[in-house]
Amino acid sequence: MPLNDILDLLLEMDNSEGTRLNKFLSELGFCSRREADRLIEGKKVKVNGTIAGIGAKVFRGDKVMVNGQFIENNSEDHVYIAFNKPVGIVCTTDTTNERNNIVEFINHERRIFPIGRLDKDSEGLIFLTSDGDIVNKILRAGNKHEKEYIVTVDRPLNQDFVSKMSAGIPILGGTTKKCLVEQTKSNEFRIVLTQGLNRQIRRMCEYLNYEVVRLKRIRIMNIKLDVGQGNWRNLSASEMLQIQSMLVNSSNIAPKKHSKNQSTFKETEPKPLKSTKSNTHSSSKPKRASTERPDSKNNKQSTSTKSRTSKPSSDKRSKSNKLNPAGNKGRNRSGRR
How far apart are CA 289 and CA 238, in angstroms? Predict the structure, then answer.
């Protein structure tokens, strides 16, 4: 399919689905999604002259007003940035608690956020955008979008290291997916991943008793690192068109959550629980157990009534003993409880 036809298809899909109103206002930088919900609940937002409700969607050409103020619909004009992150910069939008955050380092006029992350001690290519829809499509491991790295370790490599890294390493409760690993220098290798586990490459190397000295990402999908350290550039229209064509069949739906003992990449099936004798015995005779309870209850009631009629004086002793087996010494305390 020609690229122009793919772009037309994507535009048609976006127009048919629309954008949630709170997300629309948030991506424009007008307010947060939570604040947008408050404005909508307060009936202060109109779409095409009609008061909007929670969950309302905005489509191309719609006119949005907040407190009588017209909000320009420039949501099509998203920002897509390729940035060469230096070591020491943190991939977070928290500008309050993290002084070396990536957002203030770039200091873009639009509200942008990183797609994925690179560790503070790592460097290289990372995308930033104002488009929330594209993030999950790029990041989901199931979508199989490649990320390429050059890694330097603390000692010489061997073929055993390359083979094991390629086949998969057990980390974080599972085994990493098979990947391309190629030795480029004595203590340097190239690796191509479709996953993005927490500190994945560092953990894989640590498992094989290697320590990462330098980790640099040089490619994401079709975009190669081509700007100096600390610099960024806008992705071109042709680059974005190619990325969008690669994302046509990609999902932006988050996978189901797993428990701590389950892995989200390669799971090992849990062993079946062994049955015990007590469980087998209790389940084999359910009727006998159920019929014995009412009989034993009636027997207790008959013996208790018999004792009450024959020995009234001993009844008081039995009650006090039930409350306090130690005798009469603690009767007042048990009464206070």
Answer: 76
